[in-house]
Structures are given as structure tokens and as C-alpha cells.
Amino acid sequence: MKGWTAEAFNQAPDSANEIHGDKIAKQYGFKGGLVPGVTVSAYLIHPAITAWGMDFLERGYAHVRVGSPLYDFEQFTVNVLKETETSYEAELRRPDDTLSANATVELKEMAETPPSRRGHPIAERGYVGPAASFEVWEKLQHEGCKAFRYHWGSKHNMQTYVRDASLMPSLLTGDNAFANMGFILGTSNWVLASNAYMNPWVHLETYSQNYQPIAQDTTIITEMTVADFFEKKGHEFVDAELALFNEADDSCLTTIKLRAIYKLRGM
């Protein structure tokens, strides 16, 4: 299993989550717009897809924690640490050797039985949820969340997690590219922020389990439930559980558990 080095790429400087833009990020003490947490996660999972290929897209598991910012154009290094034939631990370090994120990645012998669709109502195009708060999360927890529809295609703005797509595994590039983990994890961010409006907010941690690869021109339905919400050290957090389904046959593609700071201290 090999680590790797590349240049960080912020695909979302104009995101509705303005923590990815320089202006708002600097107001909160950051050097500039943050590279998305899902992109940082893709960097840590990259060695798994390079080594295990389609096996990882079919049954790979990853737990990724983002602890500090990574910025556009920074030269990052992913170091593979403890390693077996079917698992590894990894860390991502910035140019000054600051630890930005770490991960545990595993190729499951047999993934657990995937969930079935709950039949949550699919939001209409352009839907914007109410401003995130304890009251809103409690309501969504008890009354249910809206599901959202996404489409995977080679022209999606998350089609690459580095500027030079040739650095990505071949399975993830070209006209027949399968969805990469930046896109897959990204759907959890989009559903969370669509059910309850948040700006700015910070992606912190995910647990993900793949059940099948997402091929070109797949339409995805992502459902969400609110697991928890709490305050700690002035930040307000939310935990959500999500499942991605192929709209064509309702089969489960991936499950994700996401933790985020939806309200930063001082907002």
C-alpha cells in the first residue's frame, strides 16, 4: 500500500457554504477558503482504490476525521501507517507537517446487509430548508427529513478531487468514470445542508460503507435521518445518518454517518 503526495484542490470556492470561500473563512480565523472535508477524505481513501480497485467501490469501509484545515494549492502528503492485506490507517499532513486528517480504511470481507429505502418524500428542485437550530433538528428527527435526487456523470464539478485527473485511479477517470468518494460523501453534505440551511458550516467526520459502485449516468436518491445534535465548547454539532440508493432499482449504494459543526462559535 503506497501513500501519495499531490496539490490540494478546492472545487467549491463559490459554494453556498461560504467556509470554502476566502472572505468568510478569513472572518473565522482561517487563512483562506477550506478545501472541502469530503475532498480531504477522498485523498485519504485514494490509496485504497489504487490498491483494491473495484473491490473497494463494492465493499470498502472508511472512517475519516478532519481535524484542521487544508488549503487550495497546498502540497499535502498522505502517509499509510498500520497496514494489513485488507486494511490500513493513514494520516494527511500539510506542508508544515501539521496533521490535517486521519482515517481507518478497510476492505470488508462481506458488508452487512444494506438498508432499504424508507420512502422519504423527495424535495422539489430549489428547496431550501429552515435555518438550522436545535428546534429544527428535533423536528426533523421526529417528523422525518426530505430526500434529494442527484445524478452522477463525468461532467459533475466533483468529477475530480485533484486538478490533474491523471493522478486519480483509472476507475475514476474518463467518460466511464465511476463516482469517486469526494462525490459520494459530498451527497451527505448536500442533503444535510438542504434539510436545514447552514452557512458557514464545517464537515468533521464520516463513516462510510460501500455496497456497489456508482456508474456513469446513475440517478441517486439520498435519504437522511437526524441521529443527534449538541453543543460543545461553543460550537453546535449535528450527527446524521444517510443512505444512497440507485433510483433505477432502489438498491443501496453507500451508507454514511456524518458529523458536522452547523453553527460555529461566535455566529
CATH homology-level superfamily: Polyketide synthase dehydratase
Please tell me the overall pLDDT. 93
| Principal-axes shape call | globular
Give the domain tally.
Answer: 1
Indicate the topology.
Elements lengths: L3 E4 L14 H6 L9 H16 L1 H6 E7 L8 E9 L3 E7 L5 E9 L26 H10 L4 E5 L28 H15 L6 E9 L7 E15 L2 E12 L5 E12 L4
Antiparallel strand pairs: 1-3, 2-5, 2-7, 3-4, 4-5, 6-8, 7-10, 8-9, 9-10
Describe the structure.
The chain has 267 residues and is α+β, with helices and mostly antiparallel strands. It has one domain (4-109, 120-263): Polyketide synthase dehydratase (Thiol Ester Dehydrase, Chain A). Helix content is 20%, strand content 33%. It is built from five helices and ten strands. A ten-stranded antiparallel sheet has the order 1-3-4-5-2-7-10-9-8-6. The chain starts with a strand and ends with a strand. The model has no long low-confidence stretch (mean pLDDT 93).
Give keywords.
5 helices, ten-stranded antiparallel sheet, globular, Thiol Ester Dehydrase, Chain A, 267 residues, alpha+beta
Overview in brief:
20% of the residues lie in helices and 33% in strands. It has helices spanning 22-27, 37-52, 54-59, 134-143, 181-195; strands spanning 4-7, 60-66, 75-83, 87-93, 99-107, 148-152, 202-210, 218-232, 235-246, 252-263.
